[in-house]
Amino acid sequence: MTSSLLFNVTTIAYLVSMLVFFAFLASRVEKLGTLGSLTALAGLVLQTGAIGLRWRESYQMGVGHAPLSNLYESVVFFSWTIVLIYLLLDLRYRYRVIGAFVMPFALLGMTWAQLALQSGIEPLVPALQSNWLLYHVVTCFLGYAAFAVACGISIMYLVRDAAGEAAAGGGVLASFPPVKVLDDLNYRAIMVGFPLLTLGIVTGAAWANYAWGTYWSWDPKETWSLIVWFVYAAFLHARITRGWVGRRAAWLSVVGFAATIFCYLGVNLFLSGLHSYGR
Amino acid sequence: MNNERTLPQATWDFFCSLKLAMALLLSLAITSIIGTVIPQGNLAPQYLESIGQTKFRLYQALGFFDMYHSWWFVLLLVALSVNLFACSFKRLPQIWKVMTNPTLTLDEGLKKSLGNLTTLKVSGSAEALTERVAALVAAHFATPRTTEKDGSFHLYAEKTPWCRLAVYAVHVSILVIFAGAIVGSLFGFKGYVTIPEGGSASSIVLRNDTTRDLGFSVNCEKFSVSFYDTGAPKEFKSILTVTENGRPVAGLEKVPVIVNSPLTYKGITFYQSSYGKVGQHNFLVSTPEGGNPVQVTIPSEGAARLPDGSEVHVLEATQDVGPFLPGKTGPAAQLEMHTPTGKTFRIVAFGNYPELNREAVLREGHPAFRYLGGTEGMYTGLQVNRDPGVAIVWLGCLLMVVGVYVAFFMSHRRVWVQVKDGEVVLGGNANKNPAGFELAFDRLVQQLKGELAPGEEK
Ligand code: HEM
Predict the structure, then answer these.
(1) Number of domains in chain B
(2) Is the minimum CB–CB distance between A59 and chain B shorter than 8 Å?
(3) pLDDT in tens, A39-55
(4) ∠ CA(B43), CA(B48), CA(B52), 5° rounding?
(5) What is the average per-residue pLDDT within A5-17?
(6) Smallest Cα–Cα separation from B428: which of B146, B114, B110?
(7) Does B170 sit in the ligand 1 pocket, CB within 6 Å?
(8) Which range marks the domain in which residue B41 is found?
(9) In whole numbers, what is the pLDDT of chain B averaged over residues?
(10) Do residue B92 and residue B112 come from a single domain?
(11) Could you say which of B66, B96, B126 is where a domain stops?
(12) Which of A84, B7, B169, B287 has the most neighbouring CB atoms within 10 Å?
């Protein structure tokens, strides 16, 4: 058994989970919702095993390190965190339909990683040889994942909101949670993501200070993480400012996630700096 | 007209507003993008090459080449700080009052405002009931305070009132981090030093190109690099010793310093950041036939210019070629030469085999090089910093992380009880997560119900 085989099975599990959620959306058969969640859970368990296996494989190759060091590994880990955060939210609030809007993100990540990215295990360059790598990457990605979930929820909000009265009639939209609930869930997902991103930025600064003596150097990746942080801080304050709840808050959440994705991928692809790729 | 009074008032209100906070946060987010697209801190010619004169002037006037220190970006940060301060200053007294001087009685007005309110019919006098209810609330929620008013008894109990302050801790933490950054830029420095293997340094070069004495010296005893099979660097390591007044400092002898593991002495930290070769190589350059010999010295990481304008640098050099070319002896070097006409030559120059050198020359048509030998060693490049503001920054970060956590995941929960003859009214609320509080409140009500009137179904 190799980790890459397990990752392929995981990808298929996420695909099945997404399709089942779509069927649930169309049919509103409760069982399908449960099945979608269970498939996602099975995928998560497989993926956890695969990540652990890859970790071990790296030690067997004599270059042992946590599997978080290149684009392939980080995209895989991102998918894992998205499913994890989704399932936690599901456990707590049981709005199954959200899966139909969140699982596509996880599937997209896994498919891209498996089909297009270099998946070889590489040794760590000196700059990455530190435990801070683990703390920094894990906190950042859990934060990103919570924002991905919030973005999925916000898209549901915007779709449902645009449909207006039509939604009450029936059809696919009738299985959506009410807009008030979506608004609340969006806030809760960001409430999980914001402290994690804060911690991610702080651990990044701590690491930079430890490794280079500068906790902040305005390199593009750092700056973009701050941009993301500002957008979500604005989101949090939007809720206490009249006129900025509901649709505008949902848009802010979508913009925030777009900035997150740019921070994660765009910076490496389009801008130069210390983080491209890895540090 | 009394502008004198309304203008300050209006200014104050402006700075207290949350709309301004939103505007500032989003402005900071949007403007920050500029500095990630335009490279920061390059030299003027580099910019001119890529963007032309007009844009260059405009961008320079707007401070785009060092935008995070430009007046307008700093102004945004100052405005954010003032906004934070004003807003907190305005709201804090109200919050403080809610925390320290709570409403103790459950009167009609309060009842209307509470989302959670339940009435229990229980037999017993108000006084006797109050005692029992108080004990139960203490056991299941928090110790209540009792007040008597208009013939009925009121209990008030609360949990974690201080978590209302968490938001302010978050806001203050931002100001603390700014303060740390300012302390660092006023009293700290950042510099750089290169030390050849076996050499030492007692001063460093700062960012503004001035030199700074350290007050002690750092010796590089040894420097080594190792590589993975793929050719990527695995580790580069300097063995450093700190000496002061001519003697090694205890505990700082032969300390290995690698990336991610620096050395600190007297608040000054040395970070492994780069390495390279130092040394020089001597060549005899002549016409292919050996005429007009000139001696040329080329530094390890530099280049030399020949009289005809060609530029030559050393790719690799060895003082004994034997291990690489069995049967041969003496020094050898590999050179790269760029002619003014745009040609590039790779040249191998031996010390002991002028005829081999000449063979290639006749084939290619470049000058003849004879390697006379040279000296070469490694140097280590260290980043050298002192930042007395770092501790303040970490304090701010800690405050922020803890504050955000408390602000989001803890709440100030309050329960009021009014006890009259034969009747107990319970109410409560929380400043966060109403759904979570509702569950806890219902549980409390069930517990009271069960224990006050066992067996009685209400
Ligand atoms: C980078 C800057 C800022 C950060 C990270 C930040 C962070 C926060 C956080 C985490 C909350 C709690 C939100 C919630 O419970 O949903 C909050 C609330 C709040 N913030 Fe900020 N904030 C910032 C700037 C500002 C500014 C400039 C103002 C000035 C008006 C402000 C005013 C407030 C107010 C009034 C509240 C609500 C307090 C309450 O619930 O009693 N914040 N802030």
Answers:
(1) 4
(2) no
(3) 999 999 999 999 998 88
(4) 155
(5) 93
(6) B114
(7) yes
(8) 7-96
(9) 87
(10) no
(11) B96
(12) A84
Q: Which of B78, B96, B114 is the last residue of a domain?
A: B96
Distance CA B359, CA B339 (A): 20
Compute the distance between CA of residue B235 and CA of residue B322 in angstroms, rounded to an integer.
28
B269 and B237 within one domain: yes
- ipTM (interface pTM): 0.88
Q: What separation in angstroms does the CA of B188 have from each of A214, B61, B78, B208?
A: 11, 28, 22, 13
Give the separation between CA B245 and CA B233, rounded to whole angstroms.
36
Q: Which chain B residues have a beta carbon less than 8 Å from that of A226?
A: 32
pLDDT tens per residue across span B349-391: 888 888 887 777 777 778 888 888 888 888 888 989 999 999 9
Query: Any CB–CB contact under 8 A between B26 and chain A?
Result: yes
For residue B256, is it within any domain? Answer: yes
Alpha-carbon distance of A20 to B193, in angstroms, equals: 61
Residue A234 beta carbon below 6 angstroms from any ligand 1 atom: no
Q: Residue A254, Cα to own-chain centre: how many angstroms? A: 13
The answer to the question of residue B181 being in a domain is no
**Cβ density class A19-57: b for 16+ within 10 Å, e for less:** ebbbbbbeeeeeebbebbbebbbbbbebbebbbebbbeb
- Put simply, the chain B residues between 3 and 22 with a CB less than 8 A from any chain A CB are 18-19, 21-22
Q: Kindly state whether residue B175 falls inside one of the protein's structural domains.
A: no
- DSSP conformation letters of B184-235: HHHH-EEEEEEEETT-EEEEEEETTS-EEEEEEEEEEEEEEEEE-TTS-EEE
Q: In angstroms, rounded to a whole number, what is the distance separating the alpha carbons of residues B268 and B188?
A: 9
Cβ A237 under 6 angstroms from ligand 1: yes
Q: Is the CB of B171 under 6 A from ligand 1?
A: yes
